[in-house]
Amino acid sequence: MTRDAHVPDHTGANSLQLEAVTKTYAGVAAVEAVDLDVRAGEFLTLLGPSGSGKTTTLSMIAGFTAPTSGRVTLNGRDITAIPPHRRNMGMVFQNYSLFPHLSVGANVEFPLRQRGVGKAERRRKAMEALDAVELGHRADATPDQLSGGQQQRVALARALVFEPALLLMDEPFGALDRGLRERMQLEVRRIHQQLGVTILFVTHDQQEALTMSDRIAIFNQGRIEQLGTPEDLYDRPASHFVATFLGESTVLTGTAESGTLTLDSGQQVSVGGHSVTGPARLVLRPERLRLDPQGAPGPSLGGRVRDVVYLGADRRVEIDTEAGLVIVRLSADVAAPRSGDLVHVHWDPVDAHLYPAA
Predict the structure, then answer these.
(1) Do residues 204 and 271 both lie within one domain?
(2) pLDDT tens track, the chain, 358 positions
(3) C-alpha–C-alpha distance, residues 75 and 65, integer Å
(4) In angstroms, what is the C-alpha Rg of the chain?
(5) CB under 8 Å, gap of 24 or more: what pairs does 83-90 form?
(6) Is the Cβ–Cβ distance between 263 and 253 less than 8 Å?
(7) Which of 83, 212, 258, 294 sits 20 to 30 Å CA-CA off 39?
(8) How far does CA 286 lie from the centroid of its chain?
């Protein structure tokens, strides 16, 4: 735990590589031909809905599940057939899995004891790990004397104490309340930046993934639908699934031809340089929409405000249009309409995403 000044080098060699990794159960693919490179020192998140294959993929990386086919390598070494305890990976789960009869310090020392590290060295490394999660002062406490967030930080210290080649985290904050969950996200982000450990994180929480990750792999039906930075995925989604799964969106359907989308309602809106032709879906991010007077530049739809929801920093405005329900987010410093008001929703064509309906 001596890498305080380390800044992750995301241009370095791959720390972990998956090559065409597949897992089938009774002939049905839970994970299908997944290729993935995790760079040394980066924080990469596997994100997707329940049953999308992200947890099965993590399990194959950890060695708990054997791939049906494909290869897993760590720092250039093929570990596909190596048992979990010989993979030098740290693990943090949703349940903390601390030993209730051992002190916090002894819990953190445990992986070192298994590796034959001497008593004095064990104690020194455990205290360094606990200091990294700001719990050095609770080394003599027992787990039942700690809060849920503190117990999770102890579990994190235990996973880091032997300086693993890779840290795997499977929904580690799922049992925490929202406020504590957000604090733990920032805590893990701080530790990652401080120590430079490579982290592979699994979650179904979109905001959590956006907050913590260097890159995100979005899973859908056993495959990686798109891999990129949070900004890439949110601003440049490669598919309708990514656009609607990550963040809130309005989806309008119609038929596209020559840069124009004829909505199912009969209205026509410009879709700029999109090359999609035929049945299509137009995806609009609520914060990229604005309420302007009729006749303002850009595509627009008229409608009536159904509801305005106060969210603190912004307001969520629901608008009924002939084309369907449209969601607009307005910052708190922008005057919001009232329920029943007639409004016009405008957007810049470059902020809209168009995909084939199929």
Answers:
(1) no
(2) 544 433 344 444 558 999 999 999 999 999 999 999 999 999 999 999 999 999 999 999 999 999 999 999 999 999 999 999 899 899 988 777 889 999 999 999 999 998 999 999 999 999 999 998 889 999 999 999 998 888 988 999 999 999 888 999 998 887 778 888 888 888 888 888 888 899 999 999 999 999 999 999 999 999 999 999 999 999 999 999 999 999 899 999 999 998 899 999 999 998 877 788 999 999 999 999 999 888 788 899 999 999 999 988 899 999 999 999 999 999 988 888 999 999 999 999 889 999 999 7
(3) 20
(4) 24
(5) 87/62, 87/63, 87/165, 88/162, 88/164, 88/165, 88/166, 89/61, 89/62, 89/63, 89/164, 89/165, 89/166, 89/167, 89/168, 90/158, 90/159, 90/160, 90/162, 90/164, 90/166, 90/167, 90/168, 90/197
(6) yes
(7) 83
(8) 20
Q: Among 205, 235, 265, give the residue marking a domain's end.
A: 235
Do residues 202 and 332 both lie within one domain? no
Structure tokens at 13: 């060699």
- Give CA torsion, residues 202, 206, 211, 216, to 10 deg: 60
Would you give the DSSP letter of residue 137?
G
Which run of H or E residues covers position 190? Answer: helix 178-195
The kind and range of the H/E element at 150 are helix 148-160
Which residues, at least 6 apart from 108, have a Cβ–Cβ distance to it below 8 Å?
126, 129, 130, 139, 154, 157, 158, 161
Domain count, the chain: 2
| Domain limits for position 266 | 248-356
- On whether both 220 and 272 belong to a single domain, the answer is no
Cα(153)–Cα(27) distance, rounded to whole angstroms? 40
